[in-house]
Structures are given as structure tokens and as C-alpha cells.
Amino acid sequence: MATPIPQGLTDAQAAAVTTAHATAWYGLHDLARIKAGDKVLIHSGTGGVGQAAIAIARAAGAEIYATAGSPKRRQLLSDMGIDHVYDSRSIDFAEQIRRDTDGYGVDIVLNSLTGAAQRAGLELLSWGGRFVEIGKRDIYGDTKMGLFPFRRNLSFYGVDLGMMSLTHPQYIRELLSTVYRLTADGTLPMPESTHYPLADAATAIRVMGAADHTGKLILDIPRAGSSSVVLPPQQVPVFRGDGSYIITGGLGGLGSSWPRRWPPPAPGESYSAPGPLPAKRPWRQSNSSARSDPMSWWSAPISPRPAPRSGWWPMPRPPDSRCAVCSTRLPWSRTPH
Q1: What pLDDT score does 1 carry?
Q2: How many angstroms separate the CA atoms of 221 and 206, rounded?
Q3: H or E stretch including 260?
Q4: Which of 83, 98, 275, 306 has the most crowded CB, counting CB atoms within 10 A?
Q5: Which of 48-57, 248-257, 267-276, 308-317: highest mean pLDDT?
Q6: Where in this protein does the record put region Disordered (predicted)?
Q7: Phi and psi angles of residue 80, each rounded to the nearest 5 degrees, phi first
Q8: How far is residue 74's CA from residue 76's CA, in Å, rounded to a whole number?
Q9: DSSP states of 201-241 as a string?
């Protein structure tokens, strides 16, 4: 599916606009029918969708209530001129909004929170309220939701533009054309974005995984020359130079074959295996002697139940290393324990 980019938008700007603006516009404009005077609760207001939703709500003349997950992000929302800012990591936002609205609540919730926070947002809706769900966890987890709040003539909308692109591609094409046009003519602002060169994609992914960014992360593709980004699978190192590796079930048949096949650890790296049982000591000695590098062994029962702190086992590993667990056991639900 292709959509023309209007004049006034660069390729990078169009990439930043695509999902965030389209999701916010579809949810607030097409589904919730936002209008002047509506009280709108926007969760995760500093994210890409949240920033677009704030712009759409302002353009419509709505009153904005927004949440964010850290003091820094909440301060950012306040600096944007939003008077009603709350903590998205506590369901206290619901009671605080009731207090700030003299018990009215809100007309629209643009939701990305899960569990109890999702239910708190639903119960916060006033008569005829519209709940727009853009999260996926509760939907794909088939989370149960009580129907009692719907006695107030509420509407619940689930938004999944990825699915719509498969079932209604023409609608998505028109939706993208709309948000591109509104952004190009200044009706909607460009989302805040951070740019990375394509060769630095790994850094961008780490930043995204840490959820410590605002707005969108953009990878800039060079117009000329070449850039090495993705290594062929056979060239990707399996082991980290600063890692430690635990083999559970490492004294069994499958587990015992792994250390023989693994390459020697790099400087600062170590392998460890829980055990050995007394009957396995000869195997341990023969297997360890087959390797030129040291391998750590210690006795430790493997159980799905958390061990008391006094029962934790010392494991020699570099102080700043990360640990990977390589399991040769069946899932706990299929093993006697």
C-alpha cells in the first residue's frame, strides 16, 4: 500500500507522522467524534500518539486531561500548557479527575493502560462517554471487563490500524492522506522526534526498549553510499563478551553436549551449570577436563518456586555482566516437581 506524500513533508517527517497521527485522528475524530467542550483523558501524553492526540484535542476545542509515567514527563506536559496532569502508574488519577471535575469525569478516554488502570478509566466516563482502546495487551489477553459502567450509554472502540491495513486498505490510505495533509498545512503539528543514522539502528532500538524517549524515533536512510546495519545470521555473535551463562539441566544428555560445542568464553565471560549431583561427579570431571577454559559448577536445585533469600546460591560472575539461562528442561507445567 502506497500513499503520496504532500509537498511540505520530507520522507523522515512522513515516517514520524504515519502511525501516531493516524491512530490519534482515527480514535478521536472518526470514532469518538471529539467536539468543543469535551473533556478528554489522554494516557501516556508524551508518547507519539499522545502528542498527536493533544494537538487534535486542542484543535477541536476540547479540555485536556493527560497522564505520564514519570515526574520528568509530567513536567513536560505541564510545560506544554496542560493544566490537568496525572500519574499514569497509579489508578489514583481516576479519583483526582473526579475531584477536579466536581464528579463529572470525562467524555472521552484515549487509553493505552492495562488492567486496573483500564477499568478505572472506563468507570471515569460520564453519560454517553467514549472509550478508545489503542493498547493490545488486554485485547489479545482476552481480559474480562464488567458491563455495569455501560449502563451510562458508553461506547467502547478498539483501534488496530495494522489489522485495518489488511482488511480495509483503502480506508487506511485515505486516513494517511488526511493526516499528511493536516500536518503539511500546519493544522496538526509535527511530532517531536529524535533522528538516528541508519547505521546506528541498534542504539535507537535500545532507547526505544528503555522507554526513555519522547515522541518518535526516526532512522535516516542515506541518499548515497552504503551503510552496514544488519549482520547475516551466521555472523551474529551468539555469546556476549561480558556475559555469564547458566545451563539448567546441564548434567543431562542434551545439556552435557552444549559445553563441548560452545566456543571458549571471551575475556570476562564465564559458563556455569547447576549441579553436580554426587552420581554425576565423574561426568563433570571428564567434561570439564575436555575444555581448555574454566567452567563453574555448583549445587543448586531448580524449582519454579522462588527460593528464600537465605537459600540463594553464590555464583561467580563478573560484577557488571549479564546472565543468560539456557534451559534443557521441559516447561514446568510438563515436569514433575
Answers
A1: 72
A2: 19
A3: helix 253-261
A4: 275
A5: 48-57
A6: 257-322
A7: -80, 0
A8: 5
A9: HHHHHHHHHHT---BEEEEEPPSSS-------GGGS-SS-T
Q: Which residues have C-beta within 8 Å of that of residue 260, sequence separation ≥ 6?
A: 287, 290, 291
**Considering the chain, what is the average pLDDT of its residues?**
80
Using an 8 Å Cβ cutoff, are 39 and 28 in contact?
no
* Strand partners of residue 243: 322
Give 153-202 pLDDT, tens digit per residue.
Answer: 999 999 999 999 999 999 999 999 999 999 998 888 887 788 888 888 88
- The three three-digit cell numbers of residue 226, written as one number: 552504503
Taking residue 298's Cβ as centre, other Cβ atoms within 10 Å add up to 13
Cell of 43: 494516557
Domain ranges of the chain: 11-192, 239-299+321-330
Question: Distance (Å, rounded) from C-alpha 84 to C-alpha 222?
Answer: 42
Pairwise CA distance, residues 323 & 273, whole Å: 12
User: Domain 11-192, what fold?
Assistant: Rossmann fold (3.40.50)
Burial class of residue 292, CB neighbours in 10 A (0-12, 13-18, 19+): exposed
Question: Would you state the cell numbers that stand for residue 277, as one nine-digit string?
Answer: 549431583
The percent of residues above 90 in pLDDT, for the chain, comes to: 45
At residue 287, does pLDDT exceed 60?
no
- Grid coordinates in use for 142? 482476552
Q: Give the distance from CA 275 to its chain's centroid.
A: 36
Sign (positive or negative) of CA dihedral 235, 236, 241, 244: negative
Sheet arrangement for strand 39-42: 84-87, 63-68, 39-42, 106-111, 125-133, 155-158
- Residue 143 is which amino acid? T
Q: Using an 8 Å Cβ cutoff, are 281 and 257 in contact? A: no
Question: CA 249 to CA 277: how far, in whole Å?
Answer: 11
Residue 328 burial by CB count (10 A; 0-12/13-18/19+): exposed, middle or buried?
Answer: middle
One-letter amino acid of 61: G
- pLDDT of 282 > 60? The answer is no
- Please state, as a whole number, how many other Cβ atoms lie within 10 Å of the Cβ of residue 121: 26
Angle between helices 92-100 and 115-123 (to 10 degrees): 20
Contacts of 18 (CB under 8 A, 6+ apart): 176, 179
